[in-house]
Amino acid sequence: MILIIGGAAQGKNEYADRQYGDGYTIIHDFQNVIFEQQKKGEDAMKATVSLLEEATDLERLVIVCDEVGYGLVPVDASERRYRETVGRVSCYLAERATCVVRIVAGIPVRIK
Question: Is the model's pTM score more than 0.85?
């Protein structure tokens, strides 16, 4: 599995499509998947573990996720939980990824 991370509007999706558009399964905006799971009361970490366990070709899976933990700490408790969850799920994915790329200003930086 390949994990692509970075801030909002940094070019992550474009990079993923350009590099892995053919023959790979790309999950864009994984932070939104986590948001929806949390909104429904689901456990995002368990769902992510299941996603990886059920993937038919883990080597051809690309997950693109915003880094959402920077900036001001939200006043709203649910928003703080969401950011914490995205961070923890991203750490879990990064541990298991064969490659982690961080996109900064459209420039890919391989960090694993």
Answer: yes
Q: Domains of the chain (ranges plus CATH)?
A: 2-110 (3.40.50.300)
pLDDT for the residue 74: 75
Integer Cα distance of 96 and 52 in angstroms: 9
CA angle 21, 108, 99 (to 5 degrees): 70
Distance in angstroms (rounded) separating the CA atoms of residues 110 and 100: 6
Of 68, 75, 9, 80, the C-alpha closest to 33 is 68
Q: Taking the mean position of all CA atoms in its chain, how far away is CA 86? A: 8
What are 73-102's pLDDT values in tens digits? 778 888 899 999 999 999 999 999 999 999
- The two tokens of residue 17 are 């499509």
Give the C-alpha separation, 69 to 85, whole Å: 10
At which residue do the structure tokens 């690309």 appear?
62
